[in-house]
Amino acid sequence: MKKFVVHQLLHHAIITHPEQVIVSDGKVFTYKQFYTRVLKLANSLSKQGVKKGTVIGVLDVNSHRFLEMHYACSMLGAVLHTINFRLAPEQMVYSMVHAGDEWVFVSDVFAPAVKPLFSKFPHWVFMSDNRNQKLPEEAQKAFFYEDLLEQGEEKEVDETEKIEENDVFSIFYTTGTTGKPKGIQYKHHTILHGSIQLFHHLALHEYGARVSSRDVYMPLIPFFHIHAWGMAFFPIYVGAKLVLPGAADPAGQLRLIQKEKISWMNMVPTQLQMLLDQKGFGNIKVLTGGSPFASGIAKKAHQAGVAFSLIYGGSDQLGTAISIVPEDVDPDTEEALEWRRVGMRPLPLVEVSVKDKEGHEVPHDGETLGSVWVRSPWLPDGYYKEPEITKEHFIDGWFRTGDLGFFHKNHLLYVADREGDAIKSGGEWIPTGMLEALISEHPAVAQVAVIPKKDEHWGQRPLAVVKTSGKVDEKAISDFLLSKVREGKLAKFWIPDAFIFVDDIPLTSAGKLNKKVLRDRYSETV
Amino acid sequence: MKKFVVHQLLHHAIITHPEQVIVSDGKVFTYKQFYTRVLKLANSLSKQGVKKGTVIGVLDVNSHRFLEMHYACSMLGAVLHTINFRLAPEQMVYSMVHAGDEWVFVSDVFAPAVKPLFSKFPHWVFMSDNRNQKLPEEAQKAFFYEDLLEQGEEKEVDETEKIEENDVFSIFYTTGTTGKPKGIQYKHHTILHGSIQLFHHLALHEYGARVSSRDVYMPLIPFFHIHAWGMAFFPIYVGAKLVLPGAADPAGQLRLIQKEKISWMNMVPTQLQMLLDQKGFGNIKVLTGGSPFASGIAKKAHQAGVAFSLIYGGSDQLGTAISIVPEDVDPDTEEALEWRRVGMRPLPLVEVSVKDKEGHEVPHDGETLGSVWVRSPWLPDGYYKEPEITKEHFIDGWFRTGDLGFFHKNHLLYVADREGDAIKSGGEWIPTGMLEALISEHPAVAQVAVIPKKDEHWGQRPLAVVKTSGKVDEKAISDFLLSKVREGKLAKFWIPDAFIFVDDIPLTSAGKLNKKVLRDRYSETV
After folding, report:
1. Within an 8 Å CB–CB cutoff, is residue A358 touching chain B?
2. Does residue A111 sit in the same domain as residue A161?
3. Binning pLDDT at 50, 70 and 90, where does residue B385 land?
4. Residue A84 belongs to a domain with what CATH number?
5. Which of B185, B203, B231 is the last residue in one of the domains?
6. pLDDT tens-digit map of B102-120
């Protein structure tokens, strides 16, 4: 029986698609050439003492070198630490020390920022084409990536046969809006199974960001975040063309889309908004997610010919659910578009349960909110070296996501909010994510975050922090929401008590609204 | 972490699609109702002493009761023996004794045939709506299926939590054209992974029998054969409507297609030919396979609007490859149609190697024949209680299929023949499957089998046994093949030395040409 390990995908691809290509940084590599480079890299690292269990940190945007590191580490059994470059500097260092990084690979973009760390970690590799730079003397050993690669033999590494599917493949540290970053280890079979299953879900449903072997893929989600939501694996798994955007800005991304005929991308809603502002962007499939998706962006995307699907998941649960058009709904209707924004179906093999405070499943009635619990074959074991936090979230084979959601009557899931973000007003939940999506439907609202403010009578009441894109005031938004109350879209008591208008709303490293900062700034001040 | 076991699919389906339906024998069951019946059946069997490891034989066409047995056995950890009803009677009994059947479930269609066995196996269950029949006195215990089911409680069985993904789920006995039937045990995770992966392959490729959650499925492949090529699992996995044809003949199948709006079916080429003869059949997706597919049927199917794909695999290797239209070929061309007949791409995660006699991979040149070897995450461990035969086929993690094939230049696979069927003429292979496909392109040839005849000079020479559908003689077919030689489709020495015209060609239980019978009958006589 064959093992379910990451490098196996490449072994399969070079038999079925040796001439298929990976485009990165203006260069084109066939799968066969890519495989050759991976072999040389793995052999060279092996000669340098890298072996099963060695932890290697990589700090890079989405490049072919970062992708090569995925497959070389897999062949050696080394643990790939995909360093989260959106962490604050001291958190990033914390993650590198906590994970036990022995090697650090860093690309030009990030090299200046890590200078103070050269003496802290023993081995450094510079993923740069500029080999005239001086290598740091503080490090025990330092290499240019291409030099290291050139020193390797082009043969299978002996260690590869010994890698098991239950071995650790990679480690990643979540942002955490509070406290220190939490590490999550991914095993070969769990990261592969979980990553690829989300593309199976997409392939099995006809509308939205459906995938096929004919698509050309470009991930805007960085590799550090669940391996670009599985994009480090899937195109090679299906034998498709993969384009890596490096550090391209939205204009550069658009040029790549046009030049390389990209047909499928993943990105967070903020990135989608920026691309929608580029003239000529459209007619493409997009998987997005990370926060409730405002109907304004959804409509704008739809008008531009963006066939989108929304994903729900996270680094500590992997992919859980993706939005679909229910099979009894005509795909060409407004209703279908709305389902793709609010109706998530769990991936095959994933169980989702929404529970009330007593731990009972809530009725599937389209309104009763509860805590979202998830069970799947690819749940991680817990947080790395954090038994206490693990115990709070990984319970009896289930993962308590900390999200608040409900089931529609047709059993599709809606994730409304983080439990910690929801507002408890007079004993009733107000899900801020859902409320934000409604407020952002107002044409003059560019972005909005709803946070709680203390209230003597109700306990908490909602406060909206609004970034405008036109002339609008508190009364106009309240009136707009009252009209939504009449349409049955929200309860009257959800309407915020106060509005604050700001120039910019702070975001987290993952591009989500940074409610911690907003709460610190505004919760007590109104 | 959740276990990858069969009944888990049903647990998932009743959350996501409780109102989806299974249609069988004129009855309609929602998934929720189906689940209730499965629970009652499992509890009732548990009360009767069925437990983990109990072997239960089922002898039935594709019915809801047979499907219920899949999920009830899974919950109990009982081993489902899907009895191969196309075996000769004495072989069938051999398989039941060899597998260790303690219970036998039999439907009305097969009950008369098994009468002599009532005293041989202790427990019998009659899957019949006619409860006025007399139950056999020879059996230790005998029940009507619906009575047994009614006696069960509607609750989860305690045993269910203890079932592991490496536990045995089922056992099946292959026909074997020579010798006694060979048993293959399927574990939960291998049968699920292998079965479902073939549908992922179909979903990931745009042309042919692509599957989606909107399709309505009807399997003509019997459940005994790899659980209807995975159809016992996939519709429930994706939450789709499933229609079970029972013992319907082609006319009855067509009525079901029209009434239930079937959009996807699986079947062997013989069944496809019979359906194509029915007026009104077409505009449907079909997965077929089991033997090289003649271009005549392919064209006829295409003209009827049948979007077909061809599968290569077997009960001892599960699904291995499915035909595709290469990504650089326009799907609306004749070339695309031809690739769907002759160009198989291994399923993702499957490795296929075609080796010469020295064990080296043959060049991918579109002509060099070699032995087909397969490696996949779901290969069975070997043949049940047959260590010697196992050793001959399961070698170093690979399965030696015993098939002869080659790789096209674009790395798609063509399986040309069984090694034992190919003809060695003057030291060169003549693949009979491929030759048969060419001969059957002649408009007056209905069916053809090519077998070897002894030849003093060449060792072996081909002999064609032909069933005609019009006026044709030896010279006409030879001339036709000579024109194919000029087109570069075959080598001149492939043209058979002799032709025998017959009224009918014997088939095996799997619907393949029975070459053993033909060789016994004709090889020495010409």
Report:
1. no
2. yes
3. very high
4. 3.40.50.12780
5. B185
6. 999 999 999 999 999 999 9
CA proximity to B67, closest of B37, B92, B27, B111: B37
Contact A349 B2 (CB under 8 A): yes
How many domains is chain B partitioned into structurally? 2
DSSP assigned state of B513? B
**Residues A40, A168: one domain?**
yes
Report CB contact under 8 Å: A348, B214. no
Q: What is the pLDDT of residues A191-203, one digit of tens each?
A: 999 999 999 999 9
Q: Is B328's Cβ below 8 Å from some Cβ in A?
A: no
Instruction: Choose among B313, B478, B519, B327: nearest CA to B411.
Output: B327
Contact A22, A244 (CB under 8 A): yes
As given in the structure block, the two tokens for residue B96 are 């039941």
Q: Is residue A139 part of a domain?
A: yes
The domain of B167 spans 6-185
Report residue A186 as tokens: 């991914």
pLDDT score for A397: 92
Portion 2-61 of A in contact with B at CB < 8 A: 2-4, 8-9, 11-12, 15-18
* A390 and A463 share one domain: no
**Cα separations in angstroms, A174 against A82, A214, B266:** 11, 33, 46
B247, part of any domain = no
Note the pLDDT of residue A433: 84
Residues A469 and A350 in one domain: no
Residues B359-373: tens digit of each pLDDT: 999 999 998 999 999
pLDDT tens digit sequence for B220-270: 999 999 999 999 999 999 999 999 999 999 999 999 999 999 999 999 988
Burial class of residue A90 in the structure, from the number of CB atoms within 10 Å of its CB (0-12 exposed, 13-18 middle, 19+ buried): exposed
Considering B160, B185, B210, which residue would you say is the last residue of a domain?
B185
Residue B477 lies in a domain: yes
- Those residues of chain A that have pLDDT short of 50 are 526
* Cβ neighbours of B196 in A, within 8 Å: 348
Tokens, residue A387: 């038994």
The interface residues of chain A toward chain B in range 367-386, judged by CB-CB distance below 8 A, are 375-379, 381
- Model confidence, pTM: 0.91
Q: Which residues of B touch A378 (CB under 8 A)?
A: 1
Q: Which residues of chain A are within 8 Å of residue B199 when distances are taken between CB atoms? A: 204
**Contact between chains at B12 and A345 (C-beta distance less than 8 A):** no
Same domain as A496, residue A351: no
Per-residue pLDDT, averaged over B134-143, amounts to 90
Give the separation between CA B522 and CA B520, rounded to whole angstroms.
6
A390 touches chain B (CB under 8 A): no
Distance CA A196, CA A188 (A): 12
* Cross-chain residue pair A204–B211, CB shorter than 8 Å: yes
B355 touches chain A (CB under 8 A): no
Domain check: are A209 and A346 in the same one? yes
Q: ipTM of the assembly?
A: 0.90
Residues A224 and A344 in one domain: yes
A-chain residue closest to B198, CA distance: A200
Residues A175-189: tens digit of each pLDDT:
765 678 999 999 999
Residue B279 lies in a domain: no
